[in-house]
Amino acid sequence: MVKGIFIVLDGLDGSGKSETVRLLHDYLSKNIKYNVLMTMEPTEGKYGKEIRSILASEKDPKINGQKMLDLFIRDREEHLRDTVVPFLNRLDDHEANIVICDRYYYSTIAFQATQGLDIKMLIEINKEFLKPEIAFIMDIKPEIALERIKSREKEKFENITFMSKLRERFLEMPRLLNDNIKIIDASRDVDNVFEDIRKEVDRLL
């Protein structure tokens, strides 16, 4: 019987999240039993592109929290409907269809709460979305994260004050949500970080 497994990696920019997603995808794809999709939020769809435009053009991290929330919710609805759920439900010869997603509703809750929106409202508006089988929060000090991404042009939320509060929000996730969430120390070498995640995923599979 084919089963779908939804895995999420989330956390601050500069945590190594996207690289670890690729490593996990490559690792799982080597096993012919698994059909693996790597995806991300915001997506490359209509709403995702609008989000990316705002992130690149605005400088004040506190403004447009409600607008960002509305766009992320629409982007997520489309992403799940058109990409994630159909892939998880595919009927083929694989033992498991696996989706690995770079960012999910943990980011929406953490970022928009840090922007000033009510965190209980944010949890409520996201609670009907598909729950991952496991989610990894890549934890890192903002100073280290910013040092890692200093060579690129900064986006809207990439300043030390905002990211310090954002980190606190991410670390609250296991207490606030009834999800299978693992906090990962992302300040270490990427191979060590990946090894911790690989072990957890292997146990899940």
Report on this structure:
This protein has 205 residues and is of the alpha/beta class. It has a single domain (3-204), classed as Rossmann fold (3-Layer(aba) Sandwich), CATH 3.40.50. 51% of the residues lie in helices and 17% in strands. The protein has helices spanning 17-29, 46-57, 65-88, 105-114, 119-126, 142-148, 160-171, 173-176, 190-204; strands spanning 3-11, 34-40, 96-102, 134-139, 181-185. Strands 2-3-1-4-5 form a five-stranded parallel sheet, sandwiched between helices. Helix 2 (46-57) packs antiparallel against helix 3 and helix 3 packs antiparallel against helix 4. The longest helix has 24 residues, at 65-88. The protein is globular and about 50 Å long. The model has no long low-confidence stretch (mean pLDDT 95).
Concise synopsis of the structure shown:
With 205 residues, the chain is of the alpha/beta class. The chain has helices at residues 17-29, 46-57, 65-88, 105-114, 119-126, 142-148, 160-171, 173-176, 190-204; strands at 3-11, 34-40, 96-102, 134-139, 181-185.
Shape: globular
Instruction: Name the strands of the widest sheet in spatial order.
Output: 2-3-1-4-5
Estimate nothing, just give the exact number of structural domains. 1
Helix and strand content put the structural class at alpha/beta
Main β-sheet: number of strands, strand sense, barrel status? 5 strands, parallel
Summed over residues and divided by their number, the pLDDT gives a mean of: 95
CATH architecture name: 3-Layer(aba) Sandwich
**Relative helix content:** 40-55%
